[in-house]
Design brief:
Length: 488
């Protein structure tokens, strides 16, 4: 899952902030009870949520079948190896693993996978702000005296870390524990009906400060996310010290699950209908022009809501659940990976990472991979991701190459090919991650994880860690426990 780093800069200010306790919000991966009666369980979707649920339910003795529409496991964890040369690879989906995502780290260790740093510790990043290229040493704060945007003298002295703390620190401390049962009815609810730009303006932030704090995902004019979602993300991020990735590609985690579950996964089986009564539940899949029905005692649905909108469900779900399925907002992320003949930017002392106020985030996906070729990634969120995703493949490449050349001049002479992923156009995702719009946290997301009859729900969109592998894993374990309790 394209799991996101919503605000590149906010974390810098909050790492040492005293407003938050030391709690790590992770669900323990304790074993499910083996005392429950053996029942048939159907899981829809072989992303991380479905895989972890299937893995733990199988270990506890349940009869599990996983139905996956695609021919691969992982869902929005997708490592791209083709069409790149020299065994290079990049992440089209979930990319970063924070060091306080204990549940994700636990399963990575369980399967014997190796973690490596996501960000390089050497060389410099590059920022393109107001048309000016600014060099920033790896791990250092952006020098605001170099930024050609309108800010107050005080804001420039504070730096990015100081700006984040000044304008966001108090609110992050006030929202309370996001995992508390009545969290959305407490002080947090006051922050749900506006977006970040609106809040920062009320706090007296300058236009330039607002624009910087919105980076790298949006501009003040087109930020569609609830401020409360932003604050929750920043609260979690304030306890990070670093971020990792899995050596060899993040898809090694879902592949490890899938290898253990191979006999019970049915690939190429998109579910088109779910029907339940007082005794059983049935999932009907369409395959090769025919339909096949799987009957079970319980069903765990892990597919993203844009996909679930196209599934016939009988009897219909509650009005509250149906409204959430129909209206929950998803990020329209587009990623374009450029294969370059050489890592020419390194000769100038750059590590290939950066940000531009287009806005976009730039990664060098292959900085720790062998060889002389390199992969630069343009990561575009929300409005920009939607606009670029709507372009033809040729026009999309031309746009990204032109913008990338502004950050790393010389790209055109080194460009060999590309790969692009438009998550909103993916028929099995419909978007990169659930990012609630203003007002949706207290309405659509309240109780979004609750089961409906024999249907249980999992996936990052039903968790407190929307957009993260941690959220998918946590939700899958929760649903597995619900099912175990239901059949006990």
């Amino acid at each position: 899952m394209p799991i996101t780093e919503r605000r590149t800069f906010l974390k810098l200010a909050l790492l040492a902030a005293p407003v938050i306790g030391t709690r790590v919000w992770s669900s323990p991966a304790r074993a499910l009870s083996s005392e429950a009666r053996k029942k048939r369980i159907v899981i829809v979707g072989a992303g991380l949520a479905g895989l972890v649920a299937g893995y733990e339910l199988t270990k506890s003795g349940q009869d599990v079948t996983i139905l996956e529409a695609q021919l691969r496991p992982g869902g929005r964890v997708q490592t791209i190896r083709e069409p790149f040369s020299d065994a290079l690879y990049a992440e089209a989906g979930a990319a970063r693993i924070p060091d306080n995502h204990e549940l994700t780290l636990r399963y990575i260790k369980h399967f014997g996978l190796t973690l490596v740093p996501f960000y390089p510790k050497q060389k410099d990043r590059v920022f393109l702000l107001g048309g000016k290229r600014i060099r920033v040493p790896a791990g250092a704060d952006l020098d605001l005296s170099q930024v050609p945007l309108v800010m107050t003298p005080e804001e420039r002295r504070l730096g990015m870390s100081g700006l984040a703390k000044k304008y966001m620190g108090e609110a992050i401390g006030q929202i309370g524990d996001p995992t508390a049962p009545d969290w959305l009815n407490g002080p947090a609810k006051a922050y749900d009906n506006l977006n970040m730009a609106e809040y920062l303006k009320k706090q007296g932030a300058s236009e330039g400060a607002i624009r910087l704090l919105e980076l790298p995902v949006a501009t003040p004019e087109d930020d569609p996310a609830s401020l409360l979602w932003d604050l929750r993300e920043s609260r979690y991020e304030s306890h990070e010290t670093t971020r990792y990735k899995i050596d060899g590609g993040n898809d090694l985690l879902p592949k490890a699950f899938a290898a253990k579950l191979a006999p019970i996964i049915r690939y190429g089986c998109p579910v088109v209908r779910i029907e339940q009564d007082s005794t059983k539940i049935r999932a009907t899949v369409a395959q090769a022009g025919t339909h096949h029905t799987f009957e079970a005692d319980r069903l765990i649905c892990t597919v993203p809501f844009p996909v679930l909108r196209k599934v016939e469900i009988s009897p219909n779900l509650s009005d509250t659940k149906r409204k959430a399925i129909d209206e929950l907002a998803y990020d329209t992320i587009t990623r374009v990976v450029l294969q370059c003949r050489t890592r020419y930017w390194e000769k100038d002392g750059y590590n290939g990472f950066g940000v531009s106020d287009l806005p976009q985030e730039i990664w060098h996906a292959s900085f720790d991979q062998p060889g002389t070729r390199g992969l630069l990634v343009s990561y575009m969120y929300f409005a920009l991701g939607q606009r670029v995703g709507a372009l033809s493949e040729e026009d999309r490449l031309a746009f990204v190459a032109r913008e990338m050349n502004k950050l790393h001049p010389g790209l055109v002479d080194n460009l060999e090919g590309h790969f692009s992923k438009v998550w909103a156009a993916d028929p099995w995702a419909g978007g990169a991650a659930a990012i609630p719009a203003p007002g949706q946290m207290r309405t659509l997301c309240a109780g979004i994880e609750n089961p409906e009859g024999r249907v249980h729900f999992a996936g990052e969109h039903t968790s407190h860690w929307t957009g993260w592998m941690q959220g998918a894993l946590e939700s899958g374990l929760r649903a597995a426990r619900e099912v175990t309790d239901a059949v006990s």
